[in-house]
Task: structure prediction
Amino acid sequence: MSTLRRVLVANRGEIAVRCINACKQLSITSIAIFTSADAASLHVRLADSSVLLEGEGPRAYTDIDTILKICEKQGVEAVFPGYGFLSENTDFARRVHEAGMVFIGPDNDSIYKMGLKHVARDLAIAADVPIIRGSGLLGSSDEALDLARTVGFPIILKASGGGGGMGQQVCWSEDEVRAGFVQVESRAKELFSDTGVFMEKYYPACHHIEVQVFGNGSEVIHFGERECSIQRRHQKVIEECPSPYLAGRTEIRRRLISCALTLAKSIKYRSAGTIEFLVDDETGDFFFLEMNTRLQVEHGITELCYDVDLVALMLQQAGYQLAGLGGIPSDELLKKQPEGPDGTAIEARLCCENPADSFMPGSGHVQSVAWPKDDCTRVDTWIQLGTFVSPYFDSLLAKVMVHCATREESITAMQKALNVSDVGGLVTNLEFLESIIDSTAFASGKTLTTFLETQFTFQPTGIQIINPGAFTTIQQARPRTRKGYGIPISGPMDDLSATIGNLLVGNSEDVECLEVTAIGPEICFHSTGVIAVTGSPFLVEVNGEAKDMWSTITMKPKDKLKIGASVTPGGRCYLTIKGGLPGVPEWLGSKSTTPSLALGGLQGRQLRRGDFLDVKHLEQSDLPGAYQLPSSLTPPVDVKNIYVMHGPHDSDDLITATGRQTIYSTDWAIDYNCNRTGVRLLGPQIEWARTDGGEGGGHPSNVVDYPYPSPGGVNWTGDSPVIFPQDAPGLGGFLCSSTVVSADLWKLGKLKPGDKMKLTPISYRFARELAERKAAFLNAVKQHISTGHLEHEAPLLFAAIGKEKPDTDAILKVIPDNHAILTLRQGGDRFVIVDVDSRKVGLDTSVAANSLARAIESFDKPGTFVHVNISSIMVEYEPDTIAQSDVVLLIDTAHRQSGTIEKPLSTRRFILPIVFDHPSIREAEHRYAKLQRDKAVYIPDNVTYIQENNGLASRDDVFNILRKTRFICAAVGFMTGLPLLWPLDPLARLNAQKYNPTRISTPPGTVGLGGGIFCIYPVEQPGGYMMAARSVPVWDTYALRPGFRDDKPWLFEPFDLVEFQEVSLEEYAEIWRQFEAGTYEIQIEETVFNAGAELAREHEICDLPDAVEFRAKQKLAAEQMRLREEQLFADWQSEHEKNRGSAPQVSGDLEGVKILSPQVGKVWKILVEVGDVIETGKALVVLEAMKLEITVAADDSHHGLVVKEVLVQEATLVQPETLLVLLDKVVE
Result:
């Protein structure tokens, strides 16, 4: 016999994994096929090689021509079809054989005969196998009705070419037959390209039992039976081997198996197959149903009970066929006939579907996964962390199997196995399976095909989102365990309200909750729950009845909670639930969502309609009594004042005393575009202490990139300040004048568009006093909830403290040095930034910063973490663990002990593709000009601006620098692992200001320039760097793509080397497709970096005439551009102020139905025209507010009306109650 060497697995999912593993055990090379949606599937990773298919969905896996071409190109000898797709396709089996390969399964004749159910019935009759009373092919619905009257009701209509429970309809009376026939005929044509329909008598109280057979074309053996009676819509849910019904019924079992062998032998069956029978529960009579000419999903429990590898046996059979020997020799095959099963086995099919919503299939990424690991459990699965479960395919995620000596032991083992199984981020039927296995009906062993309808009742434990509201996310006050690398801490913006909400329902302070913005969700409770709604005032109803916020509310099964609109537009509130949301997976130690970066929470996004969230099962004893928090313990609704500390950058060298006076005396208005990434403030320009940002960029707010004091930093993106909340970036090149103290961060969640508030500076001492008062306030809340006693009459005085106002204490210390000056700047009460001031920002400052960081880390001080950048570091500290003064001492001590990097460093060299003038960059520039700022030196073309700002002759000169330059990664941060790249060639050191204000969105993989530093945007995200070109993203949340390391979703580390290789738009499109599919191989090689040699080379080049001339031209051009930008900015700002609130003023007596703006925002899209007829739910206008797209839609009262007038234009700024559209009745 020749050895089978190369097998193509023409399938996906767990069966593809099963076959690949069998091939590995037999030293057979496996080739997988996959679609982009399956790129992170386990079968792609395990196969020896894999081929990406064109297209998506089942059609890609059933394209016979394409698959055969792949086989030819790959030198395939045999094809394993698995189950589903092409496994029972006679044409495919025939063409595989004609191509000189082996179809690992039966011959096409057997597939054909058993695939047509009416032919299979005739073969069963000929083999003297009992069949259910029924018919051959039916010609019409009338014929079906006549025969049904003769057979007797109920009957079942089946598609002749069907299988797997598809294409079937039970009819209980004459009234249902005609419609049932039409439905099955239509479904048969759609699914099987065969309109044949036949009829059988339907037995509702029966067992579904199947026999596993294996043949070589002449002899057939069996591996016992399986019971598959527990089904939902004819799809198996739980399977057992052997059948509990046949225990003690040896004669029935013997006859049933004998019939299966006789039938299989009559068609000279070869390979693995299953013959299914219907067994009457009362009489034990059995009838042939169908033969599956393939491997079954549930084959694994047979393997466990009979100690056989059916897939390996199929491969062995294929090897004999490849050698022209027909199959496994009969004497060898007959020796494999076992006497009986060893023990019992149970299988549970874990699927991505929602039992609480009619088992609606779900999709998304696997955010966490865990399986049992004991000796009696086997799990066949295709998923791993990060796998995308596509909506295109069957919902099966895994088969959980147990094998023990007795059925009772197997039930116990399955209970344990399901209890430890977990697939986070997806809704599954896990709780449903657990309930079945735990039920007394299942334990009895009498499992009929009507089990789920008549013997079992399931009550889900969870909540379902009926309407998600404007923006609802999962947040948790517990910060993420990983700091730096552009990973925001996230969490509730108003953590004080969220904490009190948790206390109200009996949770610990940092249990996850729902954060609701602007308009709340409608939620159905499928089980008992205890909730509280806290935060800004919202309308709260349960089943239409108003409920108080700041109180405990008990929800009963089927109750509907509706959180309406914020009383003042744009507010935030928090829904806390007793026990939290246990099914939501943690990411880096927290369940919080960062929706702007698609991290954490549920699929990294806001909640959607249909989402299902598990909640804790509550007993009656868990339910609290009624409780209402007194108003004296309710935080204020409006914020008039936020406490900050000076620094890091409101020092005299950057902002004048007049500028500081403006910052701290102004009533700052909250812009409509405020959200979890940034709270933008509107107010006057401040006075800067310098005319430009030097090496940081053309604007005085620009500085060389540094680690941001985030959250809390008051960041100046040009002349527009933004306060950094929980999802803000971790580094950047805009200065922070001040930093919100940690005890006042909760107030950021209270800010709404249109609010006004002051920034009040306080000292470190008062900041810590404020933190102590906040903690005392929470203790007062706990005490009152527990005892009803209020110790202090005015506990909210914690929000007001002394009025100490130092002019500025931003700079904590200056440490002189022979090579550089260290300036220590405070960032609130949790950060100290250290600027490494040298002759020139560059490689030497980067080396010095890294040396200092390593020295600080060597002390291993509890409560500290060091962030590194190109010319600075930041020590983040926990003030309850280590005081600010001790951090300053630590930095000073470490500096005196730090050295330089003298030895060559081991590092990596990356060669990345780059494409110029990509359409997505043009689109981002256009969107910015339309929505944010239409007059700037960098609009409409960032590259032309870079060229002119640096005195270059052409746009291509910018591209040439990217083509030819080596870059070093100076730091990794901002958001999601963004690398800051420093050109090693001084002649490649371009300079550019940053966007003012920053962009809302940047395409992933964009190569940017800000100040003198380049970067690569890892994902779609906000940004301020000029967009020069596009490469590939440098972030992978689950670190599965080639080039990423385990548990490290960022690609780069400091001192990695980067080069770019130009590709065309067409080549880039293919690279992007491969990257999305997870198959693109980034060019990475190990190398060394000699800092000393590079510094010497840099100093030599800097003194050359060409370099001196380049810098002079660059300086002149930048100055001209700066003056031009000042004028353009002034013009834009003047127009911007003039147009604010520029929606036309209309009289209140306009006739018609008025559609009003729900809040402050800009009109992003107008979706109707005059004369349009309106339907319920139709989107009329889309506003952009708080960086959300808020749809203004028609309700039931607008149905049938016509658009009379549109009263706004796109890009118009509107206020709450602004008239958008006028509707009227249709004129007859």
